Amino acid sequence: ATPTSIMVGTGKAAEHGILFKGGEHLENTKKINAIVLDKTGTITKGEPELTDYIAIDASEQELLQYAGSIEKTSEHPIGKAIAKGVEEKGIDLLQVKDFEILPGKGLKAKVNDTMVYVGTRKLVREIGLDPAAIEEKMAQLEAQGKTVVLVATPDKLLGILAVADTVKADSKEAIAKLKEMGIKVVMITGDNQRTAKSIAQEVGVDEVRAEVMPEDKAKEVESLKTQGYTVAMVGDGINDAPALATADVGMAIGTGTDIAIEAADVTLIGGSLKGVADAIYISKQTLKNIK
Ligand code: ADP
Ligand code: MG
């Protein structure tokens, strides 16, 4: 393409809130035929709310206090939702120490010298507890698209909490448009299968990769590239940065983390997924007659 047509294209994109870091990315965008979409913060608003809490081996107060105190330190949307929900109930938070993030699984910290774990089933199984007794209830909440978080100490399951995130207003329409363009659309998330399927169904995504550990998101992108696809990755989180860098075109949600924006080739300022279809459309239009 000529430098002029590239400049016209990137200028036009900028008017639509789509910032290309360089002309070569505009050229690659034209060829995209597979798109990997992160779930939390990309398809959904990423501002979940605490909706349910069920105490098992603790009082409700204890369950909420322990979970809230630990999550107060977290920057994960799930953690923020839990801390906020607990504080809104007027429950005082406790001092925690030895706080540690367990990527893709949750976190742990000491409360009153007891180690408390907050996170996935996998995390709870790893410390040697069996969440089977509460499985049916968890499945019910997940079928509603909610994310269930377990709270445990080394010897007991204190209870579970659920948070619900909402889909962005135009995610469904944007995904329909991409599918109409003949593009393969895949949703990827660290969240569990059932929650992921429920959200995917709501927005019309047929292919889902759930329970993907942060370091494996880039591998999923790489695998599509190996199959011959020109792949765009769209994400907002720190977890998405390697996948954004691996994709042929990495697109960061402008309302997301700086680390994602730095790793990406394109920033979608408004945060809407419509920007993805617009970017492809503009790229095809401006580079129409150019090989
Ligand atoms: P995503 O791709 O959806 O952003 P992550 O890899 O960040 O997923 O997290 C995967 C899963 O780990 C979450 O769905 C949640 O179950 C659990 N998790 C992560 N961070 C936290 C946290 N601060 N508190 C509780 N659970 C968490
Ligand atoms: Mg995300």
Automatic annotation (TrEMBL):
Residue span relative to the full protein: 396 to 686 of 736
Name of this protein: Copper-exporting P-type ATPase
Family: Belongs to the cation transport ATPase (P-type) (TC 3.A.3) family. Type IB subfamily.
Subcellular locations according to the entry: Cell membrane
